[in-house]
Amino acid sequence: MSLFAEPTRDGCAINEAARQNPLVRHMDFEGEDWLYFPALRPGVAIIRASTVDENGRLVFE
């Protein structure tokens, strides 16, 4: 059986560039082998505003 998340196989990588820096890795936890996925920190935010002026200031109503 082939698992997409298995680090020895694809490791969640869909191309060769993603395989260079794998997302998932094996970790030993209390004598058991687990897959470790580090937390992802997004660098974006979604902001809702009613209006915006030409200088980019937002107004919330």
UniProtKB/TrEMBL annotation:
Superkingdom, natural source: Bacteria
Listed InterPro entries: NagB/RpiA_transferase-like
SUPFAM superfamilies assigned: NagB/RpiA/CoA transferase-like
Name of the protein in its database record: Uncharacterized protein
